[in-house]
Every structure is written in C-alpha cells, then in structure tokens.
Amino acid sequence: MITLLVIVGIAILIAIGYMNHVVENNKLEKARTKVELNDRLRRCGEITETFPGQMMTPALKLLLTRLELNVCQRLLNQDKTNSAAKARIEELSALVAQGESIPVNNPPAPIQTEAKAKDVRFLLEALHGQITRAAQDGFLPANEAKRWIREVRHLLVLLHIEFFNNLGQHALQQEQPGQARLAFERGVQYLRKQPDPQVYSEQLQYLEKLLARANSMVLTNTAPAEGEVNELTEGLKDVEAEADWKKKVIYD
Questions:
Q1: What is the sign, positive or negative, of the torsion defined by CA atoms of 229, 231, 237, 238?
Q2: Which of 34, 155, 199, 218 counts the highest number of beta carbons within 10 A?
Q3: What's the Rg (C-alpha) of the chain?
Q4: What is the pLDDT of residues 159-183, one digit of tens each?
Q5: For residue 54, which phi and psi values (nearest 5 degrees)?
Q6: In the chain, what are the helix, strand and coil shares in percent, each to the nearest 5?
Q7: CA–CA gap between residue 252 and residue 250 (Å, rounded)
Q8: What is the pTM of this model?
Q9: What is the Cα–Cα distance from 213 to 68, expressed in whole angstroms?
Q10: Cα–Cα distance between 100 and 80 in angstroms, integer?
Q11: Angle, to 10 degrees, between the axis of helix 58-78 and the axis of helix 83-96?
C-alpha cells in the first residue's frame, strides 16, 4: 500500500511538473508571437508611410492595408483588451472596403542618391518578407503571393532605372559627361542582365540614347578644337620636331 502511494505521489509530481512546463511554454510562445506580430505591424506601417509615391499604386496600397489588418486581428486575438488594435482594425477595415479606390497619399521621393536607393531597396526587401510570411500563414493564397513577389522584383528594376537616370541627368546638369556616361552605362548593363529584357525594351532604348549622348559629349570635350593651342598640342609639336631633327641628323 505504501509503495503504491509513493508511486502515485511520484506520478502526480511528474504530471504537475509537466503541466507547469506546458503552461510556461505556452506563455513564452504567446510572448514570442506578440513580439513578432508587433514587429510585423511596425514594418507594414513603415512601408506604407515611407514608400515613394511614384512607385506606390492603389493595388499595392490595398495589399499593405490588408497585411496590416491581418496582423492587427491576430494581435487582438492574443489580447482581447487591446483597444489600440480594435481602433486600428476599424480604420483598416474601412480602407480595405474601398478596394482599389483606396487613397494613395504618399508624396513622390525622387531616387537621386545611392543612400536613397538603398533605403527604398530595404523597403522592398521588407515588403517581400511580409508577403512571404503572409503566404506561409495562409493569409495570402499561393498564386497571389507569387504575383506580388514578381511585382516586387519589377519595382526593384524600376528603382534602378530611376536611380541611374537621375544620377546621369544630374551629372549632365553639372557638366560632368564622364560621370553621366558611367551612370547611364550602369543602367544599360543592368537592364540587359534582366531575365526578360524585352519587358524593359523602352527604358533600355531611352538609357542607350542618353548613353550615346553622354559618350558624344565626352569625346567632344576631350578632343582639342581645330587650331586650339594648349600644352598638350605644343608638347606634341616639340616631340615631332625633335623626332624630325633626329631623323635629319641620322640620314645626313
């Protein structure tokens, strides 16, 4: 009897320990999920608010709003008393209900520096991550997620096109055709390396024309004008005269 009681006692202790372990794990999992959801909510808000207006479409704005709404709903499921999540859900639901008539208020932000280009590229990477995670969670259907990932890649190409074009145009305005040629050449090479360059044939032709113009300006600036006297041409004349004199001496 005593042995049986001891065994039962040990079994009860083991069961209590196991239950405590399960409870603690559940608490940790909920805390981890809450931190993750808040991070995703922050990233969605950052993309929505800071994405350049010239690249933000109503469809993309709607997607970001849907992603943020999904995260807010999951946060509310974690904490039913989260008043901030409740209020935000009402705002986002009203926006989603507008479909692609959703207002897009992002101001244009020209991509004129490498730092700005990197900032926008980071936003695109964050967007790619949000789409992938939403697909893994089952919120976005696989086909829709794949379509949006293709769109993110397309936006990345447009980012490079705008950056190289703006960089080259700025160099031309500063009368630096060499720098302009380098920028346009990088843009042309980038587009030619795309898996389907025909999609960007119009942009490629445009950059090629700018490249040809910059190259012509470089050649014009580096070639001395007819009759122009400078140190280089004078030096060449001296070298030629010296060579002629040496020939005369040798052959005489």
A1: positive
A2: 155
A3: 33
A4: 999 999 999 999 999 999 999 999 9
A5: -70, -15
A6: 80, 0, 20
A7: 6
A8: 0.76
A9: 46
A10: 30
A11: 150
